[in-house]
Design a protein that fits this description.
The structure holds two protein chains of two kinds.
Chain A: H1 2-17, H2 24-48, H3 57-62, H4 71-79, H5 83-89, H6 91-111, H7 123-147
Helix pairs in contact in A: 2-4, 2-6, 4-5, 4-6, 5-6
Chain B: H1 57-60, H2 69-93, H3 96-120, H4 124-129, E1 131-135, H5 144-159, H6 177-182, E2 184-188
Antiparallel strand pairs in B: 1-2
The chains are: A mainly alpha, B mainly alpha.
């Protein structure tokens, strides 16, 4: 029992107190974990408030959805295990979820102090990733435009 | 392995202001920041500021020398929590005069916070969390007017489902879109 307490203490201390360097996917994974937790209780919160949710400012102003519209709905759906609803609302969220699932073991190793500090990606790798992500976001925008009946 | 400072070979950035080193040419004789003396007659800053040279940001300087997204959120919460808490209390009392005083006080607080953010690089929240907002070009606080302009630029962060506020999660310099527009970075103090 004492060992478990020590391990827990070390994990919490390393995650919270020690400023550790994490890679970009790990940062997104940590954020996604928080988003999923909020998504799990989001319907309850909405039931006790206005029920309006978080509006997209671009869509509220112009009627046109932005590339990231549907993130909240899809995250709430994912938090409740509704994959089909999530994919039908925002495929981007499903891609992020897949990335998060693959990153969790690496993040756990980093938090436990097993994995070393990640090396920054090269300029070339960054450019390639940025290009790929731009294409993904553009495709997601097309999907959202289609979902809202613009195309 | 805990992060306990800069790795060997990288310039010291986490420890606040890089030292001013008199007339030594930095990085083998490169002219410092266009040669203009910043802030009224001060000699040109010639220390060794690592991240803001516009060079190889990704391969050379680890991005964890900038403040993380979660720390920035922490600083923001410290900035806004007093207003929210007092606002809720005042709303419960439903006294109109008290509400008017609260709105004036909240406005004054916001202006003061932006004033010190621009002047000293630290709002109250950033001071608590241990961060500074500086220009990525000069490494100095951006000034009160620019701090207000940066606030206006946060509209761009919000317009696309608030994704701009998440940019520090993946951006190499941990900048929001407003930071990119204003050419500012948030660094550990």
């Amino acid at each position: 029992m004492r060992c478990i307490h020590l391990l827990m203490f070390r994990l919490v201390r390393s995650a919270v107190i020690v400023r550790r360097a994490y890679s970009v996917p790990e940062h997104i994974t940590m954020f996604s974990a928080g988003a999923l937790a909020v998504g799990a209780v989001y319907p309850t919160i909405m039931a006790h408030t206005s029920g309006q949710g978080i509006p997209c400012p671009l869509r509220a102003l112009t009627g046109v959805p932005c590339p990231f519209c549907g993130l909240t709905t899809a995250t709430v759906a994912l938090a409740h295990g509704q994959w089909k609803t999530a994919a039908g609302t925002s495929p981007l969220v499903c891609l992020i979820a897949l990335m998060v699932a693959g990153t969790v073991p690496v993040l756990a190793a980093r938090v436990a102090g097993i994995a070393s500090i990640p090396r920054p990606a090269s300029d070339r790798a960054r450019r390639r990733i940025t290009r790929a992500l731009s294409v993904i976001v553009a495709l997601n925008w097309l999907f959202e435009l289609h979902r809202y009946g613009f195309i | 392995m805990a992060y306990q400072g800069n790795p060997p070979g990288t310039p010291p950035y986490g420890g606040g202001q890089p030292p001013y080193q008199g007339g030594q040419p930095p990085y083998g004789g490169q002219p410092p920041y266009g040669g203009q003396p910043p802030y009224g007659g001060q000699p040109p800053y010639q220390g060794g500021p690592p991240p803001y040279q516009g060079g190889n940001q990704y391969g050379g300087v680890p991005s964890y020398q900038y403040s993380d997204w979660i720390h920035r959120v922490g600083g923001y919460l410290v900035d806004v929590l007093p207003v929210i808490v007092v606002g809720i209390i005042v709303s419960i009392t439903r006294v109109t005069a008290l509400l008017a005083i609260f709105w004036l006080a909240a406005l004054g607080y916001q202006i003061y916070n932006r004033w010190i953010l621009g002047g000293q690089g630290q709002s109250l929240g950033k001071r608590v969390v241990g961060m500074r907002l500086v220009s990525e070009e000069t490494g100095q606080p951006i000034g009160t007017l620019n701090a207000f302009l940066r606030d206006i630029c946060h509209i761009v962060d919000g317009i696309i489902c608030y994704i701009g506020y998440l940019f520090p999660l993946w951006d190499a310099k941990r900048q929001t879109l407003a930071d990119k527009i204003m050419k500012t970075v948030v660094i550990p103090a």
